[in-house]
Amino acid sequence: MKAAWFEQFGPARDVLETGALPDPTPGDGEVLVRLRTSGVNPSDVKKRDGAFPALLDQGPVVPHSDGAGIIEAVGAGVDPARVGERVFVYQAQYGRRLGTAAEYVALDSLRAPRLPDEASFEIGACIGIPIMTAHRCVFADGDVREQVVLVTGGAGRVGYYAVQWAARAGAHVIATASNEEDAALCRDMGAAEVVNHRESGWGRRVLDSTGGRKVDRVVDVEFGANLPEVLACIRIGGTIATYSSTVVPEPCLPFRDMMFMDLTLRLVIVYAMPEAAKAAAVEDTGRALRAGALSHRIAHTLPLEGVARAHELIEQGGFGGCVVLQID
Fold first, then answer.
1. What is the per-residue burial (b if ≥16 Cβ within 10 Å, else e) of 3-40?
2. Which of 141, 196, 195, 200 is nearest to 173 (CA)?
3. Which domain holds residue 187?
4. Domains of the chain: total
5. Measuring CA to CA, which of 22, 48, 75, 135 is 20 to 30 A from 7?
6. Same domain assignment for residues 244 and 314
7. What is the pLDDT of residues 153-200, one digit of tens each?
8. pLDDT digits 0-9 by tens, 194-205
């Protein structure tokens, strides 16, 4: 099969290779998916750069956890009727070497849910990390109907979906954005108000936008950097659900202040979500896709041979939307 892989850690153009690898075969409980797309996410880039030193101990790694395609074969214990099913793939390269940057992947049938006909394979490649992370951040701590939900980085890969999930669930959504184009996008997705997180004191402006009502729940893209402003606008007993802290990777917490506010801090990553939460996200996503109820942003689409460039785009940032590889 055609595939991309790396055998050492380092810059994308130095270590990522493309060529031919043996076709995988599905084991017990597995499906073989002929991939049409592969999603590229920050976690994929970090793995390639050496964030997990033991990753290469068992051999070369085919990167990427997200993708979409069609089931071509099944292993023992899987309903043969699944052959021909359109699916999206998540967690393909989690605790395993072989991900979705290839023509084929064999993995647990559970990690290849049905992709509704209403959704393209490109959209399917955006589900695993962006959509499911957003779903977990919004809903992990209960119903958000009539709550005030703050989504930082509302035009980002995850924030874009978090705004939509929260607004669809009946929350009053406030988003942060750094420019008017992104602010307009957040409003289009359901945000009632948008504040500029590049301006100092934006936490107070969140309160201005609500008439002084404090935030019930925060979905946060930059926990360490945003925490002082978040503490200025979150209510006692509120929840911060965060999935990244890149600018300040090892935050120092104002423990006493947070303790006296009785805050809940939830750290979210798709891989570690309880199976029930994954199932709920898959079910809700399928329902929303069938209804055409979610909007999507695909910023860059490249061929498999452009995998190094895809990784560089993720590293450079400066754009909204997902990066997707076309496998065929």
1. bbbbeebeebeebbebeebeebebeeebbbbebbbbbb
2. 195
3. 131-271
4. 2
5. 75
6. no
7. 999 999 999 999 999 999 999 999 999 999 999 999 999 999 999 999
8. 999 999 999 999
